[in-house]
Design brief:
CATH topology: UDP N-Acetylglucosamine Acyltransferase, domain 1
CATH superfamily: Hexapeptide repeat proteins
Oligomer: single chain
Order of helices and strands: HEHHEEEEEEEEEEHEEEEEEEEE
Structural class: alpha/beta
Strand content: 25-35%
CATH architecture: 3 Solenoid
């Protein structure tokens, strides 16, 4: 990677507005897309090969994980994931800057995590002016199906994000949050435990 491209990507990761259309950045995105394509065209039975691609694709991931295909990301290298990660079908992560996911995180199907936003002005948007802000998902979080997590959001430890939510702002720890825009509904407490008599 040439110094100019590295500098541009550093500016993007820092959260500042920058112009990010260039042949080299396009080549980096294409390389990531190729890895995702190979992953998504392997059968589940090719577990070792799938695991190898995922380890090479992402910045860091724990030793115990399940990522169902299809899976898509932009760079991959900006994604850090902890242990015991489960991602259902069709997880998309636009990781123009850091996406940090903790331990014991469940992601439902059709979830999208976005770090990047484009200029509202037409001419600036067409010139490639964009900004990226990091996303953080704490330990022991369950993001239900069809959720969208927007740039700059932090989801606290132990949260459950209800299906179809659009997360536009931070969610405090140990909270059940739902809706569009996603809002805290109530704390998750010991009262939410399923009693032994209700388990067969």
């Amino acid at each position: 990677m040439n110094p100019e491209t590295e500098n541009t990507l550093q500016i993007l990761r820092s959260g500042e507005w920058c112009h990010c259309i260039s042949p080299e950045i396009s080549a980096i995105l294409l390389d990531c897309e190729e890895k995702c394509f190979r992953l998504n065209n392997l059968p589940p039975s090719s577990a070792d090969e799938r695991r190898t691609i995922i380890k090479r694709l992402l910045g860091k991931i724990g030793n115990h994980f399940i990522i169902h295909s299809p899976f898509h990301c932009d760079f991959g290298t900006n994604i850090t994931i902890g242990e015991n990660f489960i991602a259902n079908f069709n997880l998309t992560i636009l990781d123009e800057t850091r996406v940090t996911i903790g331990d014991n995180v469940f992601i439902g199907p059709n979830v999208s995590i976005y770090t990047v936003t484009h200029a509202l002005d037409i001419s600036q948007r067409n010139e490639g002016l964009m900004q990226a802000r990091p996303v953080t998902i704490g330990n022991n979080v369950w993001v239900c199906g069809n959720c969208v997590i927007l740039p700059g959001v932090s989801i606290g430890e132990g949260c459950v994000i209800g299906a179809g939510s659009v997360v536009t702002r931070d969610i405090p720890p140990h909270t059940l949050a739902v809706g569009n825009p996603c809002r805290p509904l109530r704390p998750i407490t010991e009262a939410d435990k399923i009693s032994a008599t209700g388990i067969r």
